[in-house]
């Protein structure tokens, strides 16, 4: 329709018919070159299923972190480029995020599949061209599993995991995400208390006691003749509290270490 409208405008403007014809052919080939075919996108979905199932299944294989991230990137690309991506893609991505410990993203994808009614396949009544091609290939694989046995097995395994473990994976990611948020809030509170203590002019000893109390550590024994140490000949000799803290870090280094830990 767009080509027809442009051709009519050029014809009305007085362009020769031959020029309009060649312009139309040139524009068509440009469109075919820069637009991906639906089948090509469909093949990427099934390749993603194969890779995701290989990583998620319980076996003794060890996967490098960059391998898992590459598969996750492949799945995210499918969600970005395909209108109405299959729910199984969301589940596989959520399970992969759960596996690497990225629980925020895992909750985002798994909650859509497990708790959102619109993620059910029955609600997809207006499919895109890619989704139609995907469903055709999916039914062909289901009806003739011997033609693509590995792909068929991967799809069945992911669907089985989605049904049996989808909610448990979501709950697991939510619990761990709450623990991470609580730990981050506790670390942020620790840093704020130290910063406020510096502003109020609290001494080093009081500030170190506050840090140890927040981190759950007991106070070190101090005072004269409270600690015994060995001299270079292996004999026990009495030492003062000052000797116990002879190698203690300055307060600036302690704060620097705590600040770096909070940032990480």
How does this structure look, described?
- The protein starts with a helix and ends with a helix.
- It has three domains: 2-30, no CATH class; 38-179; 202-263, no CATH class.
- The model is unreliable at 217-245 (pLDDT under 50).
- Strands 1-2 form a two-stranded antiparallel sheet.
- The chain is mainly alpha-helical.
- It is built from eleven helices and two strands; from the N terminus they run H-H-H-H-H-H-H-H-H-E-E-H-H.
- It is extended, with a radius of gyration of 32 Å.
- The protein is 71% helix and 3% strand.
- The relative contact order is 0.07.
- Strand 1 and strand 2 (236-239) form a beta hairpin.
Give the helices and strands, then pairings:
Blueprint: H1 2-13, H2 17-34, H3 38-56, H4 65-81, H5 87-100, H6 103-115, H7 129-143, H8 149-200, H9 204-214, E1 227-230, E2 236-239, H10 241-244, H11 251-263
Antiparallel strand pairs: 1-2
Keywords for this structure?
264 residues; mainly alpha; 3 domains; 2 strands; 3% strand
Strand-and-helix sequence, N→C? HHHHHHHHHEEHH
Largest sheet: spatial strand order = 1-2
Radius of gyration (Å):
32 Å
Strand content: under 5%
Share of helix, binned = over 70%
Low-confidence stretches: 217-245
- Put simply, the count of helices is 11
**Coarse morphology:** extended
Q: Give the beta-strand count.
A: 2
- Overall mean pLDDT stands at 77
How far apart are the termini?
A: 55 Å
Number of domains: 3
Structural class: mainly alpha
Question: How would you sum up the major sheet?
Answer: 2 strands, antiparallel
Task: Please give a quick description of this structure.
The radius of gyration is 32 Å and the shape is extended. The protein has helices spanning 2-13, 17-34, 38-56, 65-81, 87-100, 103-115, 129-143, 149-200, 204-214, 241-244, 251-263, and strands at residues 227-230, 236-239.
């Amino acid at each position: 329709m767009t080509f027809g409208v442009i051709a009519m405008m050029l014809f009305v403007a007085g362009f020769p018919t031959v020029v309009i014809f060649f312009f139309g052919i040139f524009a068509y080939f440009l469109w075919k070159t820069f637009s991906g075919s639906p089948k090509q996108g469909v093949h990427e979905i099934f390749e993603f299923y194969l890779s995701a199932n290989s990583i998620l299944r319980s076996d003794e294989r060890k996967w490098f972190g960059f391998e898992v991230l590459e598969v996750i990137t492949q799945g995210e690309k499918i969600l970005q480029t395909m209108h109405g991506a299959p729910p199984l893609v969301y589940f596989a991505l959520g399970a992969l995020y759960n596996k690497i410990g990225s629980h925020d993203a895992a909750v985002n994808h798994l909650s859509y599949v497990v708790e959102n009614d619109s993620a059910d396949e029955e609600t997809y009544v207006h499919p895109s061209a890619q989704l139609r091609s995907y469903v055709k290939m999916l039914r062909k694989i289901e009806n003739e599993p011997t033609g693509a046995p590995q792909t068929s097995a991967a799809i069945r395994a992911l669907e089985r995991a989605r049904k049996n473990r989808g909610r448990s994976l979501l709950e697991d990611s939510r619990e761990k995400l709450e623990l991470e948020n609580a730990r981050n809030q506790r670390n942020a509170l620790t840093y704020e208390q130290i910063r406020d203590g510096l502003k109020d002019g609290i001494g080093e000893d009081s500030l170190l006691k506050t840090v140890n109390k927040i981190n759950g550590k007991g106070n070190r024994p101090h005072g004269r003749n409270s600690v015994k140490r060995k001299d270079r000949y292996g004999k026990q000799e009495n030492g003062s509290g000052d000797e116990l803290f002879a190698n203690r870090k300055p307060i600036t280094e302690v704060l620097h270490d705590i600040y770096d830990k909070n940032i990480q």
